[in-house]
Amino acid sequence: MKSSYNPIILALIALFSAATPAAPESGYRLWLRYDRISDPATLTLYRKNITGFVIPGESPLIKSARQELSTGLSGLLGQNIPELRSPARSPFLIAGTPASSKIIRSLIPPEDLLKTGDEGFIIRSAIYRKNKIIVITANTEKGILYGSFFFLRLLQTHSDISALNISEAPKTKVRILNHWDNLDRSVERGYAGLSLWDWAALPDSLSPRYTDYARANASIGINSTVLTNVNANAMVLTTDYLKKVAALADIFRPYGIKVYLTARFSAPVETGKLKTADPLDPEVIAWWKNKVEEIYSYIPDFGGFTVKANSEGQPGPQNYNRSHADGANMLADALAPHGGIVMWRAFVYDNNVPDDRAKQAYNEFVPLDGKFRENVLIQVKNGPIDFQPREPFHPLFGAMPKTNIMPELQITQEYLGASVHLVYLAPLFEECLKSDTYARGKGSTVASVIDGSLFGHSLTAMAGVANTGSAENWTGHPFAQANWYSFGRLAWNPYEKSEKIAEEWIRMTFSNNQDCIDGMKKIMMSSWENTIKYMTPLGLHHIMYSGHHYGPGPWVNRGRQDWTSVYYHRADSSGIGFNRTTTGSDAVSQYFSPVKEMFNNVETCPENLLLWFHHLPWDYRMKSGRTLWEELCYEYHEGVNAVRQMRKEWQKLQNCTDRERFEQVSGLMEKQERDAIIWRDGCLLYFQSFSRKEIPSGLEKPAFNLNYYINHKYTDIPGIR
Ligand code: GCW
Fold first, then answer.
1. Could you tell me the residue range of the domain that residue 83 belongs to?
2. Which atom of ligand 1 lies nearest, measured to the CA of 230?
3. Domain membership flag for residue 524
4. Which of 93, 195, 273, 422 has the lowest CB atom count within 10 Å?
5. pTM (2 decimals)?
6. Does residue 414 have an active-site annotation?
7. Same-domain pairing of 125 and 203
């Protein structure tokens, strides 16, 4: 069709659109936007370097890589970058295994690929027949897929591609999302709409979202997903549901993603009609063996099970006086012939509250070290309580040398402001991964436990509780996408820096303009510490409202003791904090020396974990010279002020994004400020009823009395009723 537009008008439109914010964007495309590169010099350079691409093969994984290279290259370079049947005379890109391409065999010495294993890759500049080319190669087709995404990221982030020599391999084997998704499509602790899995429509109708979900994960190296909630429903193991699961697995497979399910321990009784689920009972053993065989008949590359047992009311082996090892091993034996694994969660604590909750997982699991099968991993939350804004690292890291240990990080912001507060979580993840356990002396970091290097384990993994849902932009808050992204990047390499990840993500998701990057990075990098300040400063924890964990509830004192706030903060007229030192619950002794002594001594305990480990008088002198009470007041105020500052900074970034996302973030920040004030004033008024001290002069005074905060109801927070 002939265009009826005047070329001058078109040129004017182009000119104006360059100076105004970009077209509205829902955020659906995540970090895989592939819009034409905005910087003219970079664009020209890239166009010169890539005139076409070669990717031999027709397997599903190669087809995915081809599709991505095709849309990615043409989109980013703003012109058709054709797939070439034979090598061109001008610079081109070639992606393939040595087995699939003679050119690659001639250019890459086989020993160079040794270190890349079965998921890594090499990206290298080379000369072929006097022609500059770029080679993406790997031992496997999965490596080719990952290499293709990595290369596209280089372009998306405007990296120098003139002399490439990259060799990458993931440091963990199983990089897995845990979806706490129920079969009715509700999502436990989900704040971004309904579950992605439309069980009622499966297996016949397949949303295109499933493919985009797989693409997004593959682009950051996530290779596994647990579809269902750890608070499990046995129904997902029935034949009809397995067919639905198989339909999803078929879509994910071409992106290198394996499907896992949660196994409800009592399934043999609930759906199998057995009288018991005792893991040592021969009929139970046979039931699981058959069930697993059936699963593999539908999903030949099924990954295995994640299990929450004997925790928060879930059934488990202890119901039959068996140990966690008995339970895990029974499932592991059923899966082993098929290559499946069990991820058995260490998030257990007794409802009779016999001991400091922070100590219970360690006490339960350390005696079982060495008793688990080789295809079992123990899945340990980053801290000993439960995804609090800040926790010390979990003492189980390093304490079970003969057992495969994997961390569970929470991407969904259960205790960090749901999908309303802007909190970039990578610094939290990084703090945990960098922590030195001293299990084998200095340098025994959590990361070195997880990547298997400290104790020589080869089955390694990292799990993240997903924050995805049916929201158009997947995660509710546009910046919450960064938490999904950074989880994937850290699972691939637990030694990666959160700041570098933030920069990558900003460049791909918003802008490559340096001022935009700097402005957004500043907001992201300070967001977690700021949130801790207005929620749980100085090591306070678990003082959220019960039921939902969005707002403050330090006054919660009813119900199961270790689900109340007063159990954790222990505020009274003499002071505040949980004494976990050797004179208290002695949780410190679960850490290796000198970590134990560091936490135990009030002088050396980091102030950001002070009240986690110590009960201290209100007039305890802090390093700043202020009393503990004053410091608490200042921290809460600084947190709120930081949100105000962040709002100002965001306003300066208007031209860094499209109007839609700009307005959405602005609106969310307004709510975040409102709710940060509720946190600050609710907590300070409550603690003041014990300290009986004034809020220092110069600090804002609460607008209402304590009752107002106690009775406050949120009506506008996703997923919170
Ligand atoms: O953090 C708590 C949550 C529960 C969750 C549990 C767990 C899935 O409040 O909603 O249940 O942890 O991790 O098992």
1. 7-168
2. 8
3. no
4. 273
5. 0.96
6. yes
7. no
Q: In sequence order, which residues have a C-beta less than 8 Å from that of residue 697 and are 6 or more positions away?
A: none
Cβ(415) – ligand 1 distance below 6 Å: no
Paired sense of beta strands 92-95 and 131-137, if any: parallel
Residues 445 and 546 in one domain: no
CA 535 to each of CA 140, 390, 400, 620: distance values in angstroms, whole numbers, following the listed order: 47, 10, 33, 21
Task: Work out which ligand 1 atom sits closest to the CA atom of 415.
Answer: 1
Q: What is the pLDDT of residues 15-56, one digit of tens each?
A: 343 334 567 899 999 999 999 999 999 999 999 999 999 999
Q: Are residues 148 and 82 in the same domain?
A: yes
Give tens-digit pLDDT for 448-487: 999 999 999 999 999 999 999 999 999 999 999 999 999 9
Inside any domain, residue 250: yes
Q: Is 387 in the pocket of ligand 1 (CB under 6 A)?
A: yes
Q: Is 436 a residue of the active site? A: no
Q: State in Å: Cα 491 to ligand 1 middle.
A: 21
pLDDT in tens, 159-214: 999 999 999 999 999 999 999 999 999 999 999 999 999 999 999 999 999 999 99
Nearest CA to ligand 1 atom 3: 189
d(CA 410, CA 209): 23
> Distance from the CA of 187 to the center of ligand 1, in angstroms?
11
Both tokens of residue 276? 């018991």
Q: For 198-248, give the DSSP string.
A: -TTTTTT---HHHHHHHHHHHHTT--EEE-S-SS--GGGGSHHHHHHHHHH
CATH of the domain at 461: 3.20.20.80
Do 552 and 684 lie in one domain? The reply is yes
CA of 41 to the centre of ligand 1 (A): 50
Tens-place pLDDT, residues 324-358: 999 999 999 999 999 999 999 999 998 887 899 99
More confident residue, 4 or 22: 22
315 residue type, one letter: P
Q: How many CA atoms lie within 13 A of 555 on its CB side?
A: 17
Mark whether 184 and 79 lie in a shared domain.
no
Q: 108 is written with which tokens?
A: 């890459």
Expressed in angstroms and rounded, the spacing between residue 134 Cα and the centre of ligand 1 is: 47
334 and 460 in a single domain? The answer is: yes
pLDDT digits (tens, 9 = 90+) for 500-518: 999 999 999 999 999 999 9
Q: Total structural domains in the chain?
A: 3
Is the distance from CB of 372 to CB of 404 less than 8 angstroms? yes
Active-site option among 386, 430, 431, 660: 386
Q: What b-and-e string marks burial along 542-563, b requiring 16 or more CB atoms within 10 Å of the CB?
A: bbbbeebbbbbbbbbeeeeebb
Same structural domain for residues 550 and 649? yes
Residue 629 lies in a domain: yes
* CA 345 and chain centroid, separation: 17
Domain boundary among 151, 168, 185: 168
C-alpha of residue 308 to centroid of ligand 1, in Å: 10
Q: Which of 124, 141, 168 is the last residue of a domain?
A: 168
- pLDDT for position 10: 40
The residue among 87, 91, 92 whose CA lies nearest residue 102 is 87
**Across 19-33, 65-79, 230-244, least confident range:** 19-33
139-165 pLDDT per residue, tens:
999 999 999 999 999 999 999 999 999
| pLDDT band, very low/low/confident/very high, at 551 (cuts 50, 70, 90) | very high
Q: Within this chain, do residues 413 and 536 fall inside the same structural domain, yes or no?
A: no
pLDDT digits (tens, 9 = 90+) for 586-598: 999 999 999 999 9
State the SS3 of 383-425. CCCCCCCCCCCCCCCCCCCCCEEEEEEECCCCCCCCCCCCCCC
Pairing status of strand 616-617 against strand 575-576 = antiparallel
User: Which of 181, 182, 187, 188 for mutating ligand 1's site (highest number of atoms within 8 Å of CB)?
Assistant: 188
Q: Can you tell me the mean pLDDT for 359-384?
A: 98
Biggest alpha carbon–alpha carbon distance for the chain:
84
Ligand 1, atom 11, residue with closest C-alpha: 231
Domain annotation covers residue 587: no
